[in-house]
Amino acid sequence: MSALTLRLPDDKHERLRALAQSRGTSVNRLLDEMTTLLLAEYDAETRFRLRAGRGVGKSECGLALLDKAAGK
């Protein structure tokens, strides 16, 4: 496990502390959960872009498959 030093304005730190307290957790755990969500979002976007890149120039084929699936 690694340590990370994060410099925040005092008011933002207090707001994070209040948020963590309202959720019954620590600021560390709150930030861990936030980074997990951000990384999952990033991974999903990366996968989407990879898949979209593989489909470039294949729109006609894709539309034909959709028409076929719809019984057209």
Shape: elongated
Secondary structure class reads mainly alpha
Gyration radius over CA: 22 Å
Look at the structure and give the mean pLDDT.
Answer: 95
Total individual domains: 1
Count of DSSP H/I helices: 3
Would you list the SSEs in sequence order as H and E? HHH
Query: N-to-C terminal Cα separation, in Å?
Result: 56 Å
What can you see in these coordinates?
The chain has 72 residues and is mainly alpha-helical. The protein has one domain. Helix content is 72%, strand content 0%. It has three helices and no strands. The protein has helices at 10-22, 27-54, 59-69. The longest helix has 28 residues, at 27-54. The mean pLDDT is 95.
Tags for this model:
mainly alpha
List the helices and strands and how they pair.
Blueprint: H1 10-22, H2 27-54, H3 59-69
Report a brief summary of the structure.
The chain is an all-alpha fold and 72 residues long. It has one domain.
